[in-house]
Structures are given as structure tokens and as C-alpha cells.
Amino acid sequence: MDENAIEWRVSPGLVPYPEALAGMEARAAAIRAGDAAELIWLLEHPPLYTAGTSADPAELFNPENFPVYAAGRGGRYTYHGPGQRVGYLMLDLDRRGRDVRRFVHALEGWLIDSLAKLGVAAHRSPGRIGIWVAGTDGGGEAKIGALGLRVKRWVTLHGFSVNLAPQLSHFSGIVPCGIADAPVTSLAQLGVEDHGEFDLALRRGLGAFLTAIEAE
After folding, report:
1. Is-contact 40 10, C-beta < 8 A?
2. Sign of the C-alpha dihedral, residues 67, 68, 72, 76?
3. Strands 84-90, 77-80: parallel, antiparallel or unpaired by DSSP?
4. Using an 8 Å Cβ cutoff, are 114 and 60 in contact?
5. C-alpha–C-alpha distance, residues 49 and 174, integer Å
6. Helix/strand/coil (H, E, C) string of the chain?
7. pLDDT tens digits, residue range 104-136?
């Protein structure tokens, strides 16, 4: 399908989470009704935590008393804040093939390929959700991106977050995505300074991502 038929939106500033959640829900309903185009929405949030449907209260510490929102997506607790690129995807899987597993795999590949264009070798980690890189200490691995999705009447909601240059200490207020034995990292920590290139890499890889969703 033509990638130009999808609205590509980049919001400036910090978008309040309730506003984004309401916007996603409304847009997904309009897509299902045939009244709106699909949407890929890139933004940043003020500091906050979101709770997925599997969130465990024991994994929330929140020493800085950031707001906590029920997200309605799968997964556990995540952090969002300035310096983190969040991407919300409202795509119609009824038109693109009703294969959620393939959609998630394609989304992971899109993020990995986009990071590769910035010189960052990211990868999937067996048994662990998200996008990973080699640890900066030369051992193990660190998480640079998170995925959290919901599919409602075959329209996707939520999407991904990739750490460009957030305050990494804010992640210590939760057990990120329930994974306690691996650190969180960012492009800044890896020495990548031109963070604006990430959006461009995503945009250039959109066609390949859509093809991967629809592949038989």
C-alpha cells in the first residue's frame, strides 16, 4: 500500500499523556469507521510512568512522584520523558493482514534498521521484549527501545519508545518492562549526538516496514 496515504505527524514540545491517549483512541475509531487515514505520530511526553495490563505494583517505586497512567496496552511499567522519541502507530491490520506477530516483528526490524543508519548496532534479544544493544561496559546488553501495543478491532494503538537522550536516572523509579537484570541506555550514552537523524531514518524506512507487515 502507498506509504503516502499514511499521515506522518511530528508534534513539537511535550504532549500530555492523557491528550495523546484520547487522540489515539479517537483516531483508531475513525480509521475503523473509514473516516480517517492511518497515522504514525512521533512525539515526546513530560516525565511520567505508564502501566500496561500486566503491570505489577511491586515494580513501581516512583521516588520523584511522577504521574502514573493506565495505558491499556500490553506489558508492564514504562517510563516516558523528554529526550525519548515515542512513536504511536494507528494502522489498519484488517487491510494489511491480520497477523499481530508479524506486525511486532516488522516493527522491531524497522527500529533496528533505523538505529543502524545512525551507526548503532541494535538487535532483538531472545526471551526479552524490546530493542537491545551491547552494554557499554563491553559485557551483557542494554535496552535502548521498548514496545507496547494494543490492537482494537484490528487497528493498532500505542507503539514504541526509543531513548535518544532522556534522563536515564528516571528509569530507576520502575523495573522497566519487568526486566531487572539489564540496564537502560540511550543514543547519547552511546556517543550519538545528532538525535534528529533518528526521525529521518524512520521516515526513510517506512516503506520497507509496511512491506514487511504485508509480506506473505
Report:
1. no
2. positive
3. unpaired
4. no
5. 8
6. CCHHHCEEEECCCCCCHHHHHHHHHHHHHHHHHCCCCCEEEEECCCCEEEECCCCCHHHECCCCCCCEEECCCCCCEEEECCCEEEEEEECEHHHHCCCHHHHHHHHHHHHHHHHHCCCCCEEEECCEEEEEEECCCCCCEEEEEEEEEEEECCEEEEEEEEECCCCHHHHHHECHHHCCCCCECCCCCCCCCCCCHHHHHHHHCHHHHHHHHHCC
7. 999 999 999 999 999 999 999 998 889 999 976
pTM over 0.85: yes
Kindly report, residue by residue over 1-11, the tens digit of the pLDDT. 578 899 999 99
Q: Which positions are annotated as active-site residues?
A: 177
* Grid cell of 111 as nine digits: 527500529
Structural domains for the chain: 3-214 (3.30.930.10)
C-alpha cell at 170: 528516571
Q: What is the rounded distance in angstroms from the CA atom of residue 144 to the CA atom of residue 206?
A: 20
Q: Residue 119's Cα: distance from chain center in Å?
A: 20
User: Do residues 200 and 194 make contact, with C-beta atoms less than 8 angstroms apart?
Assistant: no
Which pLDDT score is estimated for 200?
A: 97
